Each structure stands twice: as C-alpha cells, then as structure tokens.
Amino acid sequence: LAKTTQPISMDSYEGQEVNITCSHNNIATNDYITWYQQFPSQGPRFIIQGYKTKVTNEVASLFIPADRKSSTLSLPRVSLSDTAVYYCLVARNTGGFKTIFGAGTRLFVKA
Amino acid sequence: DAGVIQSPRHEVTEMGQEVTLRCKPISGHNSLFWYRQTMMRGLELLIYFNNNVPIDDSGMPEDRFSAKMPNASFSTLKIQPSEPRDSAVYFCASSFGPREKLFFGSGTQLSVL
Question: Which of residues 51-90 of A touch B (CB under 8 A)?
C-alpha cells in the first residue's frame, strides 16, 4: 500500500480557503485517494474520494495531478467548526479492501 | 438508518479481565473494519471482514485479541486477558464494498487499570 505524507498541522482563519496537500509517491494504478475528517471523540467521517483530475462535492474539492503522486484537499471558506484532523488515504481493492490511515493533518481554524 | 452502532461507549476494567466490544454495521454493508486509536500510534487497522469472512487480521496486536463476525449484522472484538496498554478508543466501521466510503461508529473508550 502506498505510504502517504501530510503536514502535521496547519493554522487558518475563518473565511479563508485551506489547501492540504498529501504526497503518495508509490501510488499504484488501481489505487484511489480518499480524505476523511475527524473531530475529537468521534470516528472519522468521509469527505471526498477521487482517482484523477478534480472532484468536487458540497464540502470540498480534491485536486489530483496527472502523475497522481500527490493530491490536494481544498476547503473553501473554512469556519471554526472545520477545526479537525484530516486524513489522506490511498486504498486498493486487494481481493478485499484495506484502508490504512496515516498521521493526519490537524487543522486549527481561528476567529 | 441509525449508522454503525458500537457498545459499550465506555468500558473500564481491571488488568486480566476479558473485554468484549460489540458492533452492529449499517444494514446492507458487506465490509466491516475494526480500528484502534491512541495518541501515540494514531488509527490502526486491526482486522477487516468481507461478507462476514476475515480477510486480513495482520493488524491484530497479539493472540490476546480475537474478532468474530457470526452474521452480517454483528461483530465482536474480544481481548483476553486485557492489559493497561490496550487502553484506547476502538472504532468499528462498515462500508458497502471495495473502494466505498467507510462509516464509523462512535467508538468504545476502553480503560484497563
């Protein structure tokens, strides 16, 4: 499974756009990139998933360059409630399904 | 749907006791995962099941840990005997299938004294 590397923490202010980049140099052809969000005392929650180019939903956008060795989660106009840990994962269907979480990025949104 | 349901929410026990954590996945989901989260080690995948069959248990720390999924709507994670280093939050998650998003339960906070 491809190892992922993300910044340990990031700070932002309310109303700003936040971009969190994840590197996954060893990503394989059939790997997907998925992001989760975790608040204290809760389980992680799915945000977005993509394979290549750009994916957008009501919460975030995911940008994946052509070589797929990195990806960027974009959170538009963050609020205090977006303070959480964000995990980048690379997952593969290996005859079952194995999802490994890395250390994540702690995002602090300030007023 | 009520989501993934875990019980108990909190468990405090003494070293050497048996601990059983329970999980009810979302109806219709055919993959189930057990994770453990600590400050030092983050989120660790312990074991996952597909169609009630254990696919990969390489994350299970040692023989003291065991997991079962007797049917599509129930799974247990058992620790016997428990040790203080087992103290952590244990999460259960389920998904509809390969590459589908995971839905996590609220977790069980386990404290072994």
Answer: 87
Predicted confidence pLDDT, tens digits, chain B (113 residues): 689 999 999 999 999 999 999 999 999 999 999 999 998 888 999 998 989 999 889 889 889 999 999 999 999 999 999 999 999 999 999 998 766 889 999 999 999 99
Closest Cα in chain A to B89: A41
Is B54 within 8 Å of B66 (Cβ atoms)? no
| Sheet strand arrangement including A53-56 | A18-23, A70-75, A61-64, A53-56
What residue type is assigned to position B53 of the chain?
V
Instruction: Compute φ and ψ for A82, nearest 5 degrees.
Output: -85, 0
Measured from the Cβ of residue A68, the count of other Cβ atoms closer than 10 Å reads: 20
Q: Identify the CA nearest to B42 among candidates A101, A21, A1, A47.
A: A101
Cβ contacts below 8 Å, chain A against chain B, sum to 61
Q: Which two tokens stand for residue A16?
A: 């700003």
Distance CA A39, CA A44 (A): 7
